[in-house]
């Protein structure tokens, strides 16, 4: 394939200062380093993490100015001299949250690269995918088969991958029940579809009629509405088939409450997996019942390269059909506003060309 023409500048959404606003403007296109590729981003999903990055919510500083975004799907248009022949110009590829890692520390060597102390984070410590041309370390790009739609695979690159990994980390087995908390959002919707494909029974927890209907359409047997339930703990336990509570609870919610309630309804010997990261939040559990019920509480953070391929494979087999809406990159601020109001059902994907 002849080398595509790469412009010297491009349109991007840029955060100049923490707290925003984001500014839609022209910025230079960067050249990839020796071990990097340049990807012409076509679509990028919008993750709640992008909002945390703009607001400076987390105890980890972002780069500034910053181009956010870490669910970018596009086409490889340039590569550094050290990038091997397994990546060719014209290949379809994805940029994930983990943009790069050292590949030589004990975590990287064991396939736990998200734990690498030198990890580079797309749309956080390096510029991400809310621009037309974005850079990633070649070793970490997601390989996207050409027959798959770049638009619909974009949300798999963080929401799908993270939800799938969290379900694996829960060690829930086919036939067992998982409570998915924050099920109406981007990661939650994905978790419903992956859980269903993995043979799990699902209790979805979120707020509002529209999210309830969406959750049921995506595979939840029961929906518990946190906004109207008078006794959430009782309702979630009652929804598990034998009343003992779900075998696993996966927490995607963007508020602290669920992180303090889960230990009250998870089944004895069950597992609580924390994935959502509300600002300044703490997990709480009574020591007595955590001990005598042998409860496990753990975190789960994105996924490694193998998890990425597996998550894409579920999608490629037609098992993951979480809904998304497409909007122009120029309208990204609107997505952030809706996200803050918790009115988004599923995911928004930005079309980077407009
Ligand atoms: P989202 O805004 O699409 O969804 C969040 C959902 O939580 C919303 O539907 C909201 O209604 C729901 N919610 C809020 N309070 C609730 C409550 N009390 N009970 C039940 N549901 C409640 O966000 P998202 O993009 O799905 O991201 C979710 C969280 O996961 C964010 O904090 C994000 O930063 C984090 N995240 C973590 C990882 C990781 O690797 N651990 C990866 C990606 C995103
Ligand atoms: Zn994300």
TrEMBL record:
A Pfam match: ADH_N
Sorted UniProt keywords: Metal-binding, NAD, Oxidoreductase, Zinc
One CC-aspect GO term: cytoplasm
Domain Enoyl reductase (ER): residue ranges: 19-350
Cited InterPro entries: ADH-like_C (IPR013149), ADH-like_N (IPR013154), ADH_Zn_CS (IPR002328), ER (IPR020843), GroES-like_sf (IPR011032), NAD(P)-bd_dom_sf (IPR036291)
Its EC number(s): 1.1.1.1
One GO MF term: alcohol dehydrogenase (NAD+) activity
Sections of the chain in a coiled coil: none
Cofactor: Zn(2+)
Family per similarity comment: Belongs to the zinc-containing alcohol dehydrogenase family.
Annotated PANTHER family: ALCOHOL DEHYDROGENASE 1-RELATED (PTHR42940:SF3)
Protein name, entry field: alcohol dehydrogenase
Species annotation: Pseudallescheria apiosperma
């Amino acid at each position: 394939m002849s080398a595509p023409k790469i412009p010297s500048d491009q349109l991007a959404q840029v955060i100049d200062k923490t707290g925003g606003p984001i500014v839609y403007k022209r910025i230079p296109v960067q050249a990839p380093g020796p071990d990097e590729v340049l990807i012409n981003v076509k679509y990028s999903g919008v993750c709640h993490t992008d909002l945390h990055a703009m607001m400076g919510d987390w105890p980890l500083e972002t780069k500034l100015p910053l181009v956010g975004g870490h669910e970018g799907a596009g086409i490889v248009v340039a590569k550094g001299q050290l990038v091997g022949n397994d990546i060719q110009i014209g290949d379809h590829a994805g940029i994930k949250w983990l943009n790069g890692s050292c590949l030589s520390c004990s975590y990287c060597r064991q396939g736990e690269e998200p734990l690498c102390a030198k990890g580079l984070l797309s749309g956080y410590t390096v510029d991400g995918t809310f621009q037309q041309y974005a850079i990633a370390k070649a070793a970490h790009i997601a390989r996207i088969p050409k027959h798959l739609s770049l638009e619909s695979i974009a949300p798999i690159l963080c929401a799908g991958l993270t939800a799938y990994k969290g379900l694996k980390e829960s060690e829930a087995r086919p036939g067992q029940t998982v409570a998915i908390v924050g099920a109406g959002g981007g990661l939650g919707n994905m978790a419903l579809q992956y859980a269903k494909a993995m043979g799990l029974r699902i209790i979805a927890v979120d707020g509002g009629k529209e999210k309830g209907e969406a959750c049921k359409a995506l595979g939840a047997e029961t929906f518990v509405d946190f906004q109207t339930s008078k006794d959430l703990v009782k309702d979630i336990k009652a929804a598990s088939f034998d009343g003992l509570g779900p075998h696993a609870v996966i927490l995607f919610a963007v508020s602290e409450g669920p992180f303090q309630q889960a230990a009250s309804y998870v089944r004895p010997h069950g597992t609580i997996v924390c994935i959502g990261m509300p600002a300044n939040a703490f997990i709480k559990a009574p020591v007595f019942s955590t001990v005598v019920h042998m409860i496990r509480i753990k975190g789960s953070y994105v996924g490694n390269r193998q998890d990425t391929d597996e998550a894409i494979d579920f999608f490629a087999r037609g098992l993951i059909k979480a809904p998304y809406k497409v909007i122009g990159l120029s309208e990204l601020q609107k997505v952030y506003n809706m996200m803050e109001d918790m009115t988004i059902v599923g995911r928004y994907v930005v079309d980077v060309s407009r």
